[in-house]
């Protein structure tokens, strides 16, 4: 290539954008901190695996390059994807696939969304064969990070998109055995009037592995939720199932007594 290439980070082989959206910032893949995540970033395009690290390490693509600068060869076909991501090549709009339809959780149950919304379907498929610990950590991060993002959006008065998926819904798509998300999605299904879908989720808590963190407390919260809504029959059904599975747990015995007294 005879044309002079400016010696800035975006023209370095190690530069990688921090998102698939249009951006002028990114990270350096030569940074040892990203070494454990290279497969996720390069092979799967999965930024969530190291999102916090990306936030800490991101920098402007127009920054003057460091001594380790390795000029990328953008004429190489293998670099086309990277070139597109940093807007060095404008893709043909006619060749772009049509976006998948997006649906709102307020209108459709989680199970329905998992089948029809490509965002959740792809997440479930992506994490299906991952190690259980990795699924759990990713789901936990999404579950707890979501409310912070929502608060920030409120502070900057960002207009809410009705098709944005709640963080607990995303977390449950990532890990179908993540108990806090099962509880939250189940109670939200109930509030939205989808009683059968809600009870399917809440009753599934009873079948989680016994060593699930805070499982008894989470099941009891589900029971209390149903009691507070004066749905004693559903609460009794939940406590009976929980007591049968965990006969030595006093929380469930107390829940049974409360329901039977009412």
Brief overview:
The chain is mainly alpha-helical and 262 residues long. It contains 12 helices and 3 strands. The longest helix is centred in the middle third of the chain and has 24 residues, at 132-155.
Helix content: 40-55%
CATH architecture call of the largest domain: Alpha Horseshoe
CATH topology of the largest domain: Serine Threonine Protein Phosphatase 5, Tetratricopeptide repeat
Distance between the termini: 81 Å
Could you explain the architecture of this structure?
This protein is mostly helical and 262 residues long. It has two domains: 9-90, no CATH class; 110-261, Alpha Horseshoe (Serine Threonine Protein Phosphatase 5, Tetratricopeptide repeat), CATH 1.25.40. It is built from twelve helices and three strands, in the order ββααβαααααααααα. It has helices spanning 38-43, 51-57, 80-85, 110-116, 118-128, 132-155, 167-174, 179-191, 195-204, 215-228, 232-245, 250-261; strands at 15-17, 25-28, 59-60. Strands 1-2-3 form a three-stranded antiparallel sheet, with no helix packed on it. α4 (110-116) crosses α5. The chain starts with 14 loop residues before the first strand and ends with a helix. Residues 76-98 have low confidence and may be disordered.
């Amino acid at each position: 290539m005879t044309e002079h290439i400016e010696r800035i980070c975006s023209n370095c082989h190690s530069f990688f954008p921090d998102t698939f959206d249009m951006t002028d910032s990114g990270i350096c893949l030569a940074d040892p901190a990203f070494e454990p995540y290279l497969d996720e970033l390069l092979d799967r395009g999965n930024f969530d695996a190291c999102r916090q690290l990306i936030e800490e390490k991101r920098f402007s693509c127009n920054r003057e390059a460091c001594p380790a600068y390795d000029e990328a060869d953008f004429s190489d076909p293998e670099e086309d994807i990277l070139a597109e991501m940093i807007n060095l090549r404008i893709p043909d709009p006619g060749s772009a696939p049509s976006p998948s339809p997006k649906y709102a959780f307020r209108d459709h149950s989680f199970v329905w969304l998992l089948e029809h919304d490509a965002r959740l379907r792809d997440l479930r498929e992506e994490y299906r064969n991952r190690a259980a610990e990795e699924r759990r950590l990713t789901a936990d991060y999404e579950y707890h990070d979501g409310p912070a993002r929502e608060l920030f959006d409120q502070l900057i008065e960002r207009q809410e998109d009705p098709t944005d998926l709640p963080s607990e819904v995303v977390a449950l798509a990532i890990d179908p055995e993540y108990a806090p998300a099962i509880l939250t999605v189940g109670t939200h299904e109930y509030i939205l009037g989808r009683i059968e879908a809600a009870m399917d989720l809440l009753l599934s808590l009873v079948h989680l592995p016994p060593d699930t963190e805070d499982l008894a407390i989470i099941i009891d919260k589900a029971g209390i939720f149903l009691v507070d809504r004066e749905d004693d029959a559903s609460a009794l059904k939940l406590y009976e199932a929980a007591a049968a599975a965990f006969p030595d747990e006093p929380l469930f015995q107390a829940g049974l007594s409360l329901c039977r007294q009412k």
